[in-house]
Write a structure and sequence with these properties.
The complex is a heterodimer of chains A (256) and B (252).
Chain A (H helix, E strand, L loop, with lengths): L1 E10 L2 E11 L4 E5 L6 H8 L7 E6 L2 E2 L7 E4 L11 H16 L8 H17 L15 H13 L5 E5 L7 H18 L2 E6 L2 H7 L2 E6 L2 E7 L12 H19 L1
Parallel strand pairs in A: 3-8, 3-9, 6-7, 7-8
Antiparallel strand pairs in A: 1-2, 1-4, 4-5, 9-10
Helix pairs in contact in A: 2-3, 2-4, 3-4
Chain B lengths: L1 H8 L1 H20 L7 H12 L3 H32 L1 H14 L8 H8 L3 H25 L3 H9 L4 H35 L8 H10 L3 H29 L8
Helix pairs in contact in B: 3-11, 4-5, 4-7, 4-9, 4-10, 6-7, 7-9, 9-11, 10-11
Classes of the chains: A alpha/beta (256), B mainly alpha (252).
């Protein structure tokens, strides 16, 4: 699904990514973990088609990446919802924006289109269990509800690739686990490819079939993770070992 | 009954009552007809309203209204442009920074020479005062849009039109409206000044004319009218804000 070969990116003179190689097969998940400023968010923005002028090759779904791709959804830390739109309107914008780029000639949404659109929105609202909040504004939602709304907006356009940027770092422990489980369930049910950027080792182990440890602008290590999708306890020896491996790589990256 | 209670409990009314008390006290203390008492002024105001005062108010409101519309038509697009293009900002901002603090009133003679003594020069004066506020307010509003929000909407596949319609314009509205609010006050003062010259209509002319013939009650009725105009303008801006930025007023 995602195929990255010697990817590099600089902001001005500062090299934020260099020589990054990464493969994410279709319908699998990948968690990227690393210290602040290691370039992981830049990597996500590049995959979302938001940053141009990168060096190297990036293929998404077999095609060289050029700009925003219709079936890619991104979910940012605070959800990235527009504060002046209700949840329903925010989700509708997902459909509207993509439809416009597809056929710029037709400005008006036809009546039956509107019905189909509403149906789609309703479905996704039900799936994410936020139907009751459809007419609320983002400022009236809790952190977890905002995340659900943002996921709904990404899913409503039948995305097959979802990119998450530190979505659980502002959530309380229970909400965090619930969102992680929701993401996992949606990924498995809809066969999504998924990349999630995180600060938390637990989250990386729960959500990533591959765990990518980054250090300053480079990939330090890619670890295959057998515990993906399982809630393990630290008392489990093998799990604790994996946890320590990730932790050691993170620490080593930090030191340099 | 309910309506009456709402009027009595209205905070706006309380504010006005305080203003009236201060006015009356000033009148009592000065003990001079230069500051007439509010009730006598009110009587004159009501009498004048049915005569020419309404026309003077209308003339001034029309001028400031037209000036606001023109200033927005110029200031908003320029603000959106300089806010979203670094190059445009680099070219335009120094120009704005030079022109903005200049006292535009000093240019009134120039405007009158160029555009005549009528409405045009007065409107242009007010436009030059308001437009910079709106331009800078809009520009800063665009610049303050969080990068994440920008990326989130961009990643939905939004084209330029969608970005403006759904992200940039709604995001700058609150800032634009507060800069409008600030500039309307200054605009009114400048209008008052310009109406002292070669005008035969306008609230500024009315007040200064009454002053010249020492009709102090009339003069104060004019000041009262100016106050009411200002109140109405600010209320209209408040209403506009509630309308356009309703999302800001929802309880969390």
């Amino acid at each position: 699904m995602i195929h990255i070969k010697s990817l590099g990116y600089s902001y001005g003179n500062e090299e934020v990514l260099k020589d990054v190689h990464l493969n994410i097969p279709e319908k699998t998940t990948c968690a990227v973990i690393g210290p602040s400023g290691c370039g992981k968010t830049t990597l996500l923005y590049i995959l979302a088609g938001l940053l141009k002028g990168y060096k190297g090759e990036v293929y998404v779904s077999g095609r060289p990446l050029a700009g925003v791709r219709k079936e890619t959804g991104i979910i940012l830390q605070d959800g990235g919802l527009l504060p002046w739109k209700t949840v329903g309107e925010n989700i509708a914008l997902g459909i509207y924006a993509k439809r416009r780029t597809k056929m710029p000639a037709s400005l008006q949404v036809r009546k039956e289109d509107k019905r189909v659109m509403q149906e789609k929105i309703d479905n996704v609202l039900c799936e994410l269990d936020i139907k009751a909040h459809c007419d609320k504004f983002p400022s009236q939602l809790s952190g977890g509800q905002k995340q659900r709304a943002a996921i709904a907006r990404a899913l409503v356009t039948d995305s097959d690739l979802l990119l998450f940027d530190e979505i659980s770092s502002a959530l309380d422990a229970v909400t965090k686990e619930k969102i992680q489980e929701l993401i996992l369930r949606l990924q498995q049910k809809n066969g999504l490819t998924l990349m999630t950027i995180t600060h938390s080792i637990e989250e990386a182990i729960f959500l990533g079939q591959q765990i990518v440890v980054m250090e300053k602008s480079k990939i330090k290590q890619i670890i295959e993770n057998p515990y993906y999708g399982k809630r393990m306890l630290y008392s489990d020896e093998a799990y604790y070992e994996l946890y320590q491996v990730v932790r050691t790589f993170l620490y080593e990256g930090e030191k340099r | 009954m309910k309506g009456l209670r709402r009027v009595v409990q209205s905070k706006t009314l309380h504010g006005f009552l305080i203003l009236l008390v201060i006015w009356e006290l000033t009148h009592q203390l000065l003990h001079s007809n230069i500051v007439p008492n509010p009730i006598a002024t009110g009587v004159v105001f009501v009498r004048l309203m049915s005569q020419e005062l309404l026309w003077h108010m209308g003339a001034s409101l029309l001028r400031i209204g037209v000036a606001i519309v023109i200033a927005m038509l110029i200031g908003i697009p320029l603000g959106l442009w300089t806010g979203s293009s670094k190059r445009a900002d680099a070219v335009f901002s120094p120009v704005v920074y030079v022109l903005y603090p200049l006292p535009k009133i000093a240019f009134l003679p120039v405007f009158m020479l160029l555009f005549g003594l009528g409405n045009v020069s007065k409107i242009i004066l007010v436009v030059t005062i308001i437009v910079f506020q709106i331009l800078l307010g809009t520009r800063d509003g665009v610049k303050e849009i969080p990068k994440e929000l920008y990326y989130a909407v961009k990643a939905l596949g939004s084209d330029q039109w969608t970005m403006y319609r759904h992200l940039i314009i709604p995001a700058v509205l609150p800032k634009m409206i507060s800069s409008l609010r600030i500039s309307v006050g200054i605009g009114l003062s400048a209008l008052f000044f310009s109406e002292n010259y070669a005008a035969s209509y306008g609230i500024g002319y009315f007040i200064m004319d009454a002053w010249a013939v020492m009709k102090y009650k009339e003069m104060f009725a004019g000041i009262l009218a100016l106050g009411i105009m200002s109140f109405l303008l600010f209320k209209a801006i408040d209403l506009l804000e509630k309308r356009l930025c309703s999302w800001m007023f929802i309880s969390q």
